Structures are given as C-alpha cells and as structure tokens.
Amino acid sequence: MEKDIVDYSNHETVSRIPPGVLAYIGDAVYELYVRESLIKSCVGGGQSDLDLDKLHNEAVLRVCATAQARAFADLESYFTADEADVARRARNIKAGRGPRSMPVIDYRYSTGFEAVIGYLYLCGRDGRLKEIMERALNAMEVQ
Prior knowledge:
By secondary structure, the chain is mostly helical. It has seven helices and no strands. The longest helix is centred in the N-terminal third of the chain and has 26 residues, at 19-44.
C-alpha cells in the first residue's frame, strides 16, 4: 500500500489545513517544548534529582489556556501577516466553548496561539518557531 507524501514545507499546503488541526498539532509541539525547557533549566541548574511532580505542575502552569492566551496577547504584534491570519482563523473556529473552568476568550486565544505553533512546525520554520517559543516562555516567566 503506497502512502501519499504531503509536502508540509509548502506554505500553500499548510494553509489548506483546517485551523483546528493546526492547533491540535501546535498543542503537542508547545507542550513538548515546555517540557524540554523545564528539564534543561533543571539540569542546567545542576539538579540531578528531578522532582517529576514539580516538573508536571510547572508544565501545567505554562500550557494551560490562560497562560497561552497571555502569551498570545504579548506576541500578537510580533506575528507576521501569515501567522496573524492563521491565529485569526483559529480564534474564530466553532469548536465549542472549551472547559467551563476558563473564560471562553482565553480558550479562543489559546487556540490561535497553538495554531500558529502548529503552522510554523508544519512549515518547517524552525528558527521562527524557536523565537516564538522563547518569547512566549519569557513572557510567562515575567508574570
């Protein structure tokens, strides 16, 4: 059985992916980046005995919709035109209201943020993805 190979490096191909799907992949990419960042900061700080519960709690603080919505607000003016378009389309999808424990607006903005992450990842724009990730995490550290 032959599989079709999708050329994700082509902007046009990625632009046709529904924004909810971009957010889906972006959520996974972002969480992995957050976890890696936390581990690097612990190991780089000389810690050899890592507390997994503490790592998990720190990750949850950074990947929750409210934190992502704050990161989106800090980064929105930094987005390129195509990134802003992806974020706008993702914020406006009709995907439900999200968990009842958070404001709907946070859910929508976090979806926009995740979609931009997914878009950059699938386009193979690793340098830009790293820039956005670092800015997002730095913005969270300040707060």
